[in-house]
Amino acid sequence: MTDAPKTDLSAAREHIAQACRVLASRSLSDGFLGHISLRVSAEHMLIRCRGPHERGLAWTEARDVRLVKMDGSQGAPGELDGWSPPSELPLHAEVLRHRSDVGAVVHAHPPAVVAADLAGLGIRPIIGAFDIPGAKLAAGGVPVYPRSALIRNKTLAREMVDAMAERPVVILRGHGVTATGDSVAQAVLRVLSLDTIARMSLAVVSAGGALRDISDDDMAELPDLGSSLNLEIAWRHELSRLEQTTMSITCR
Hints:
Number of strands: 7
Distance between the termini: 51 Å
């Protein structure tokens, strides 16, 4: 048996809560569905749980992020008093168990990604410098898990992990997406890139156009701008945007 982590997890709880609010503000997971987890140890994760005053992702607070074990039991005394893990906890647990390279998992329901997949439009590298991380993500391939069921048991979760293989993201047909990252921020930004490409694909086809992948030469010219720009600045932008959105709503 592995003891609960002894470190202070308050900053990590707030980080996950902010990320949940970003998902909602970007319409990547409206309402009260969707969740984010962060690996804490070999047997523990922090994950957004459903609390006694559930209002949805847009109002996630740090107290809604609880420490649980991979089997869904509480990770420390009192962690699940009044809170319950998401029914799709196995989705997170199986990814974290089988992908040692993954630090965080995001499960979201971006409508454009679901619609594009159902329309037969895969996530393809149709953009280049518009979103370089997104272009490279698409060029590497975005697999699809073809079942639309809730991933609420180990069997379904393992099927999803197998469909994902070594890729950082997978589309769940008629359901949503599962995205991974070294960090919560990276995983959320990957969902945002998927959503951007899906929206563009739907717009191009709706306008009567045809989707065309960018050339290999152009793909080779896309630089790696580094984590400072692609991750740190991008994430600060999302948090600032969230703050501005919150202020605008409060002032109405």
